[in-house]
Amino acid sequence: MVEVNKPMRAEKLSAVKGMNDVLAPESAAWEWLEAKVRGLMARYAYRNIRTPIVEPTALFVRGLGEVTDIVEKEMYSFEDRLNGEALTLRPECTAGVVRAVVEHAMLYDGGKRLYYMGPMFRHERPQRGRYRQFHQIGAEVLGFAGAEVDAELILLADALWRELGLTGIRLELNSLGQPSERLAHRAALIAYLQCHAAALDADAQRRLHSNPLRILDSKNPAMTEIIDGAPRLLDYLGDASLAHFNALRAILDANEVAYSINPRLVRGMDYYNLTVFEFVTDRLGSQGTICGGGRYDYLIEQIGGKPAPAVGWALGVERVLELVREEGGAPVLLVPDMYAVIQDASAMPFAMKTIQMLRSAGLSVLMHAGSAEGMGSMKNQFKKADASGARFALVFGLDEVAQEAVTVKPMREGGGAQATHTLLNLLTWAQTLQSNA
Ligand code: ATP
Ligand code: MG
């Protein structure tokens, strides 16, 4: 006879290339990092903002600049199938934050300090430290023009590295000046690059007139010599730009934050002016930039808002966590306090009432779950209790349950003697356990 109703096992599906699942125990390191960030942001009085993952494509084209790596080749863009609207999975979050700030007139009562965490999407070649869905944590300060907020943001990132126990992170700093200063530098730069036209790679050839500054950001080793000899933007800065840069440096110096000035540092987006910076490490191979940011005083009006200054940074969560692993990993333990061994399904109502009480009191309890056939043998359940790493097994045998009691069996050294408790005693015992923790 042919069975007609049995479903066929379907073909396996995999995650999209360059997009990763984060599984335990690794996910616990993510939670640890996120908790550290939340604590730190609260101490600096930065407030959380959550913007959509999908934004109008125009936001990024206008915000990031048409001749940028991201807009030219890295965006996941698509048409809304109902109304044809051009949409894009956010490749970064600054543009979205600025859109939200403008849309909700958030600066009407003064500047704002904001932070976000979440996934970003870029169609890049996946490799170590470079993914197609990756995660950023970012901080943005909008509405303040002074170098002190640039400094505050850098001090905040620096404090985060210390809080995470990271060492060997270098800060590179530069100033891109103002648009008029860049224009003068641009003319000199184009003239210089034209003199070396034969040595330019295809990317540089293409950008020579559209975005020559970005040529300085080239990662092609063959271009290093030419770039090193190029006119430096820093030499074209006017007094006000230099004063801003020096004010930032004075605050960093007073706080003993070391940095080096990198005149070639230009950053990937067009929206930056004055301060730009990156935190880099030599320990992650060629994907050594863990955090980048700078001032973007013209982005708000570019996105249709009333002109207002702003500055921010974003860090790459995957890269930061890889560094955390290099330093020995996040101090996270995924071990429950107790494993509940339950002899028979008929004990479940009492067992779960007891377990809920313990969980309310702050203890972590992993409950044995049975199969369609029942709870399984006690021997098997104790094996699982042992494998869970729990310090105690809570035994809900039929004898115990009949007396509304539970036996606590220590599973590790130093857990004391085995004892049977009534509910009231159990709670008292659990509380002493916690105060000793
Ligand atoms: P890169 O030069 O490495 O491509 P970027 O200049 O494009 O970096 P930003 O747009 O400034 O990077 O993003 C800030 C941070 O986000 C980077 O310093 C990096 O840590 C992280 N990041 C950027 N792109 C990726 C990616 N594809 N995968 C993982 N992390 C990334
Ligand atoms: Mg990039």
Characteristics:
five-stranded mixed beta sheet; alpha+beta; BirA Bifunctional Protein, domain 2; binds adenosine-5'-triphosphate; binds magnesium ion; 437 residues; elongated
Structure report:
This protein has 437 residues and is of the alpha+beta class. It has two domains: 26-177 and 237-326, BirA Bifunctional Protein, domain 2, CATH 3.30.930; 338-435, 3-Layer(aba) Sandwich (Rossmann fold), CATH 3.40.50. The protein contains 16 helices and 16 strands. The strands form three sheets. The protein has an eight-stranded mixed β-sheet, with helices on both faces. Helix 1 (26-43) packs antiparallel against helix 5 (147-163) and helix 5 (147-163) runs parallel beside helix 10. It binds adenosine-5'-triphosphate and magnesium ion. Residues 69, 268 line the site of magnesium ion.
List segments where confidence is low: pLDDT < 50 over at least 5 consecutive residues.
none
Overall number of structural domains: 2
The rounded distance between the terminal residues' Cα atoms is 62 Å
Q: Would you identify the CATH architecture of the largest domain?
A: 2-Layer Sandwich
Secondary-structure content class: alpha+beta
- According to CATH, what is the topology of the largest domain? BirA Bifunctional Protein, domain 2
Lateral arrangement of strands in the main beta sheet: 1-5-6-11-10-9-7-8
Count of alpha/pi helices: 16
Classify the beta-strand content into a percent band: 15-25%
Oligomer: single chain
Largest sheet: 8 strands, mixed
CATH superfamily of the largest domain: Bira Bifunctional Protein, Domain 2
- What compounds sit in this structure? adenosine-5'-triphosphate, magnesium ion
Mean pLDDT: 94
* Share of residues in helices: 25-40%
Inertia-based shape: elongated
Please give the radius of gyration in angstroms. Answer: 29 Å
CATH C-level name of the largest domain: Alpha Beta
